[in-house]
Amino acid sequence: MTTVLDPAATSVGASLTTFTAALSRPRGFGDASLRRRRPGDIELLGGIPDDSALPVSELLASAQRVLSDERAGAGAFQYSQSAGLDELRAWIAAREGVAPERVIVTNGGFHGLSLSVLALIERGAPVAVDNPVFPLFLRALELSAGRAVPISVGPHGLDVDELEHHLRGGGRPAAVYTVPDFHNPSQGTLPSEQRVRLVELAERYGFVVLADNPYRELRFRGTDADQRVLSESDRVVHVNTFSKTLGPGLRLGWVVAAPELVEAFVRVRNRQDSHTSTLEQRLVIDLLTHDDTWFDRTLERARALYRERADVLAGALRERLGELVEVEDPEGGFFLWPRITLPGLDPARLAEASAERGATYQRGDFFSSSGRPEFTDRVRLAYGDRDVATLREFVARFGDAVDAVAAGTDR
Amino acid sequence: MTTVLDPAATSVGASLTTFTAALSRPRGFGDASLRRRRPGDIELLGGIPDDSALPVSELLASAQRVLSDERAGAGAFQYSQSAGLDELRAWIAAREGVAPERVIVTNGGFHGLSLSVLALIERGAPVAVDNPVFPLFLRALELSAGRAVPISVGPHGLDVDELEHHLRGGGRPAAVYTVPDFHNPSQGTLPSEQRVRLVELAERYGFVVLADNPYRELRFRGTDADQRVLSESDRVVHVNTFSKTLGPGLRLGWVVAAPELVEAFVRVRNRQDSHTSTLEQRLVIDLLTHDDTWFDRTLERARALYRERADVLAGALRERLGELVEVEDPEGGFFLWPRITLPGLDPARLAEASAERGATYQRGDFFSSSGRPEFTDRVRLAYGDRDVATLREFVARFGDAVDAVAAGTDR
């Protein structure tokens, strides 16, 4: 006799792997569907570049050059190498100051993190992570059921002293995840000497540094920290992207890593989607190389745009809230991480009061990697894709919300 | 005291996960780097569409429409939904005759298989697969360390009787993988009544059918089998792609599945690269909808092209090799699967003799899923991207190789 199952007893959902069934649903951060969106709401939610900084007409010109010859253009529609097209790897390598074999093209920075987790984090292994942390990294970490070990991030990025203390105390993370430039969410940049120390620790203790650097090209004041140390060490996977410069919708980024890691990433990639769109790579190669001053000129304009927005937002916050806010002027990137100095502030209450007034942002406590409610007095404000008038209006609404919570008149 | 590791003792390669370190390196099939390529060699290796059938000028026209307005065009550079853009899902859903929520956009057909393996194959679970099989599916199966259980494929696709026998005998595969239309490598198409039986077995025994259907739009003779049964059942993941019609370099495909599986795939996807390029989806939406007769007209031309190539290749083989070859006229797709009737044929010897004469193909034994050397008398010839003169020259060279092996004069 055959065992015949009752089809009603098992829906196809019961076929999901334990891995897939265990993946967390977004809560708060990263879930647009949870938002109550109303016309006129001002959202400072995501690290999104401004439409006006994106190369719409320039990419069309590239398409005209790449596709005007039917025969040559057809190559853009055919299979290509998993590590990326040679010309794109070469351009990236030249900009990073490394050999092309250290570069693999990815579908954006997050994809580089995802490949790194699969390739380098053994199931259930401990991973030291920024605290506060870019929350979507914790989502990627679910691929390996990695255990997040929080390491503090201060005004100058990851606290390397705290990490060293953890290591000396016997901590053996498989990897250390940090955003070195214009930290997300907390603005700071890891100084060059701390980068060198971090790499030395990685070599001594045998871990890998996952350096997630999507904002590095968007420095608009101050002095650049050492990028080379993150691209040249075999112990660092330096994750970058065109998302914040050419546009996140392109899903085009890269990783710089030891050649043997690049080979491993290619093997993983060959079990996913084989390679990034040949067409898109061809278009972007043309965009970057047709006029080799274009990318830097474009970045200059973008930096000026984002600097103005950062300064307007920080200035308006100080002007409106006075001693109720502490805010640092950022040196680059897309985020402010102000502290609201109301004693005993309930972050849910402030976020709700602000949303009721049509001003939404990411709550600081969403960025805790400790599992405890931390950063309850912080808010992350993303100014990349909002013009200065909108930012000023945001502050007016947000200021009213702070006042209302302070006065207890918000409910 | 701290345990300080000797950095020389652990290269970064030692940091690779056991999963990654265990991924197989390509052997034979799918490894271009193993080929000795010489000028003038004729390769009938891959399921690749012809350059002349790809929409180069049409996609440029789409780019002009999508990107000519700076403001509207910028949307193509921004983040979008993980399941794909609504307009593309709607177009696909209409073509499949299903609701849009059953569709998720992927980076090509292989990506759909990869997502299916992650979401539906528990680690180490048995998976019934075509024998002969598309070998790269076995590579995707490594994501879950799935165990392939071979089920014969005959002239009419998967042997559903053999599958049922396996199930009645207690076999409990998590999934059944098959190519229903113009099987890769063996040409056959699963008849409608066998599709219905396959779905009934899936419902009764609680497995998922992974129906990998990249060639289905390329039928150039005969009558289409039922596609709906593969798209409407909650027990089937119907994997499709634009790779063979618009070009594999686009890495653009889709899956039709039960809405709860689509949601699960989105959760996995959100740990990979978030979504397929917005720009590429926008361009293809325009391409498919600007003139709603365009896609079918383009397919008509492509089918005529591939039919001629298939017929020239099959005819030339019969003419040149006579009783030394058995070959069926295909009804669609990109492959011939001829049998060479030399008794005791050594497939490596024939492949080498042919390669020496500048004619390369995929050996039949590369497609065995049983772990045993099967299909040693078969060769897979891919004619999609070779013109008729080239195909005739291939047969002249290959015929000489068969003669030489038959006469023992090849070494």
| Amount of beta strand of chain A | 5-15%
Write the CATH homologous superfamily of the largest domain in chain A.
Type I PLP-dependent aspartate aminotransferase-like (Major domain)
Q: Greatest interface and its residue counts? A: A-B, 98 and 97 residues
The tally of structural domains of chain A comes to 2
Number of strands of chain A: 15
Secondary-structure element order of chain A, N to C? HEHHHEHEHEEHEHEHEEHHHEEEHEEEH
Strand neighbour order, sheet with most strands of chain A = 2-9-8-7-6-3-4-5
Q: How much helix, percentage-wise, in residues of chain A?
A: 25-40%
Q: What is the second-level CATH architecture of the largest domain in chain A?
A: 3-Layer(aba) Sandwich
Report how far apart the termini of chain A are.
Answer: 67 Å
The coarse overall form of chain A would be globular
Whole-angstrom Rg of chain A: 23 Å
What's the rounded overall pLDDT mean of chain A? 94
Oligomer: homodimer
CATH topology of the largest domain in chain A: Aspartate Aminotransferase, domain 2
Number of helices of chain A: 14
Describe this structure in words.
2 copies of one chain form a homodimer. The first copy, chain A, is of the alpha/beta class. Chain A folds into 2 domains: 7-54 and 296-407, Aspartate Aminotransferase, domain 1 (Alpha-Beta Complex), CATH 3.90.1150.10; 56-289, Aspartate Aminotransferase, domain 2. Helix content of chain A is 39%, strand content 13%. Chain A is built from 14 helices and 15 strands. The first copy, chain A, has helices spanning 18-21, 56-67, 70-73, 86-96, 109-120, 135-141, 160-168, 192-205, 228-232, 259-269, 278-289, 294-321, 347-356, 388-407; strands spanning 42-43, 103-106, 126-131, 147-154, 157-158, 175-178, 208-212, 236-241, 253-256, 325-326, 335-336, 339-340, 359-360, 362-363, 379-382. In chain A, the strands form 4 sheets. Chain A has an 8-stranded mixed sheet with strand order 2-9-8-7-6-3-4-5, sandwiched between helices. In chain A, strand 6, helix 8 and strand 7 form a beta-alpha-beta unit. In chain A, helix 13 (347-356) crosses helix 14. The radius of gyration of chain A is 23 Å and the shape is globular.
